[in-house]
Fold this protein.
Amino acid sequence: ETGVTQSPTHLIKTRGQQVTLRCSSQSGHNTVSWYQQALGQGPQFIFQYYREEENGRGNFPPRFSGLQFPNYSSELNVNALELDDSALYLCASSKTQTTWETQYFGPGTRLLVL
Amino acid sequence: DAKTTQPTSMDCAEGRAANLPCNHSTISGNEYVYWYRQIHSQGPQYIIHGLKNNETNEMASLIITEDRKSSTLILPHATLRDTAVYYCIDSSGNTGKLIFGQGTTLQVKP
């Protein structure tokens, strides 16, 4: 148990819809990172939020956006869903924005886009 | 793209040591070596990290060669619960960004 929770666990959407995924970080962790993991692949970094500001982004289009709140919760929003967005979405919390700090991953939300 | 290369899969007998290799051919001086693992249907779990010295914790040992171009993760007494995908990552400590490759699927067999 990492103390990081995600909701929902599974989700089915249709192409073109919008989705919001939620993450609750460990208390005291002011950094959250989001990753996308396609089937059979390693996780791919989407972006990181540190103290409620975006602090680095991977190779993902602007329709992937996020929010981080002062109460250690955060959201990943994806607009105009595409079939290729079907994946496991993982959030990871850490004390700071550096990789020196261990990242604690949640169990993920599995999104299926039809 | 991932900067490390690992074998796709490995088997290990339960109770024996599992030695998982990783090549870091492009690692630079300020980049650390990290190992995470992902048990089926769970999020990745941190195992260990190091810069240039060998490291040991309650989960594993990390051996880094002198030129830092390769590392080995050692699980001293593998159990069935160690069956997972193991990822090695090299990353500058101040980026916060972990770049995962395909990893090594370790199957621990009875």
Remarks:
- DSSP finds no helices and nine strands in chain B.
- Residues 53 and 95 of chain B are 21 Å apart (CA to CA).
- The first strand of chain B starts at residue 9 and ends at 13.
